Amino acid sequence: MITHSTRSRRWPIPLTLVATTLFAALTLVGRRPSSEGIDSLATAFDDSTMAATLTAEQKLVDFQVSADETEEAVNSQIGTAGAQAGSLSLPASSEVLPAPLEHVRQSVADGVGEASTRFGGEVGKAGRFASSRVTESLLGLAQAGGLGDLKPGGLSVEWEELAISGVGGARLKAVVAYPKAGAAEATRRFPVVVLCNSWVMNWWEYAVKQQEWAAAGYVVLMYVARGWWESEGEVTAAGPLEVDDARRVLDTVETRASDWHADPSRIATAGVSYGGGLAVLTAAADSRVTAAVSLSGWGNINRALAGQGAPNLFWYEVLKLSGSPWVGMGRLSKSVSPHFRAILAGNRSEEVVGWCRTRSPEAHLQDLCGGGRATPVLLSNNAEDRLFAPDAALLYRQALHGAGCRVETMIHEGIHAMAELPGMLGFSDAVATSSPLWSRVLAFLDANLKPGAAPPPPPPPALSFQLRQPEASVFKNYVPVYLDFDSWPSPRVQPSSYRLRGDALAPPQARDVAAPSPPPKAEECTRRLAYGPDTGFSGGGPLLSPFVSAAAGVQIKSYRRAINSSSAALFVAPPQAAPLRVCGIPNATFHASSSMDRFQLAARVFSMAPNGELELLSFGARDVWHRGPDPPYLRPDDVRDNWDVPAGGAGEVVVRMAALCTDVPAGNAVALGLSLHDPTRAAANSDVALRVDVGCCGASALWLPVVGASGGAAL
What we know:
twelve-stranded mixed β-sheet; 24% strand; globular; 715 residues; 30% helix; 18 helices; disordered N terminus; alpha+beta
């Protein structure tokens, strides 16, 4: 176990104001507004708002018709028998915008930003534009003053903008920060970090990190992936076009190496969320990448959108809407939504599975880890992330490690990208907590791109998992505690079973550790569940509740007295005589039979107080869409949702829950909630006539990863 002490927090409110002002200035200056441009934008906004008010309904109808026509063509391809994986033909780049919104967008792009000629002019040529000059000046001053993560000293930093020619001639916006060449640096060559934007984010996303790392002796190039903001083309969701674009970025690094004093033999790719996924996909596709950093990224896109076959509807809508052309931040290809919807509808055709594999780093392990490469990879994800969940991150880690990659993994408290955000803004410890994430990233880069530059540090742990603490929140001063594991799975963590017996969870016994479920017996009792959304369990919303939980320390709670016994069941263990530490992925195994072929089982683990208050620790849902064996074209890393049980039969259903690291205090009891409805995931069947029987006389069990366990004993 390690703790990370909090450094002196200087001027948190001014730092916030400085960061906000800085990014606002960078954004505005990046668009180079003239008085005519501002007037043009204001006039266009007024006119367009009125026109949109008068004609919005018709415009949206026209927009939907156009989208439907394109999607119909793509859907016909998805449904074609024997389609090859990844064989969709992409529509030509286009934007279908309601006219008033298009007028506003053009005013921003042309009247205000002059985007068509501003960023880079001739492809591949660096530019000293207003945004790069102001970025250099403001961040240089911030570093000289020691604001936030920017420390005085280090190398002077120069900024440039350029356009990089991607696939099909699409121009990609890029900004590079690199050490200025003084006399002492004239012959030096610096390692390179290539960053890619997150979903919907622009070039300024990593500006503070670019300044910090360039001053520390790195060439840091950030590019905006195709289809976002000023970069041309369409977003195909980390498909082959984006990966080939990234390889063109690496070509540019080689071409411009002498200008930036770069060493193209030492390149790392890195990013947050969308950029993190692309960082690993790029590393797999191009051996010029010697290390990769994925922060809040994914290993399997199918697992993110429909893990265990349970559709992640909220995040599907977020991704689709935010990438829509008429929102104005990106231009999502019309080929993407039909695939998203196919995944969410339980479509596991070979074409859809192939589309997902192309975009999943876990499907490219041989290229990344095999053939002697053993590429070092740093993974970081967050425990309350309901898009790229922590259990998926640990499975991703195991896949990389098993294939031969050298992997470091961190799991933090927080929702999607929450642990990364303070450091991206330049104040890793200026709000309340001291996060080790970005210092760990820099140490990883130093170890793999600057070998021999300093005495080698001790080897990092295989997994650092932040312990959930009752007092922890971003609005309180506290020292976060991380449990470090030298290997994962760790011998310090043992799966301990709590078997369902009546309405109780039987305490774990030594003989149960890592033991398979006993075969069901005819005389076993069952617990019948009816489908219904009114369960009495609170899983919280998909975004706000976990954010409040991580940010303010307000945990998601239910109450035993409110449980609806017809649509939900609660199984409770005896109170803990001593604290119980749980760290890893919980699983629940149910012996079940269903009145219909399709159903969902939603499981929740609680810490129950003596007054019946249920604090949610973890949850998960498994949807069964099809009975019978899985299709033969599925691979071990593919998501599988078939239930190989004949109609009317009974069998085992395993529900994996989100990874966690927390303590169940003495006096509280472990409790397991079960229902046929999870409000954050779409159910495979919402028929009110649905009934599922679950064995509860020893055939079903909750498995918890207990730290320091010996047969399930508490700490």
